[in-house]
Write a structure and sequence with these properties.
It is a single chain. The protein is of the alpha+beta class. Helices cover about 20% and strands about 40% of the residues. It contains three helices and nine strands; from the N terminus they run ααβββββαββββ. Strands 1, 2, 3, 4, 5, 6, 7, 8 and 9 form a nine-stranded antiparallel β-sheet that branches. A hairpin with a 6-residue loop joins β4 and β5. The radius of gyration is 15 Å and the shape is globular.
Length: about 160
Amino acid sequence: MRKIAIAAVVLLASAAPALAEWAPSKWGMSPEQVIKAVPNAVAVVRDGDGKDVSGHHQLATAPTKDGAIQLQANFYFEPGKRQLAFIQFVPGTAQCKDYQTLLESRNGAGKHDDKDLDKIQLTVIEWVEAGSKDKLKYVGVTASANGAWLYCHLHREKP
């Protein structure tokens, strides 16, 4: 039941579809082009296991790093056109606080929207990246009782 509640909160927090670009991927690439361009990228098999966000399909994934933070880059595509729509960067839960700190040190305090949702705390921070003007949206979920990290991710969105 707890996993369902967390999944619902995460999906609500990232409900707005986002367009993205992250080198070496480019907006509008097909899954095959992303897999060819991004080191260690592999296809994601769609088997009804919930790999959709806002109607977009996760069709590729690749390990990557941001500084010392290990991440999984998940590539989402428009269903009809099969074009890259956005990328979600997900660290292990043990690295969520460090990832948030890294993003805040790089991008400033950003626009915070913190919500206490009974047994979980939801943190959403938004920035506009200085160079690319891309919108960045960090979502973090912690347990209200003890502050333990349950999940986090970053979306890179089109300006």
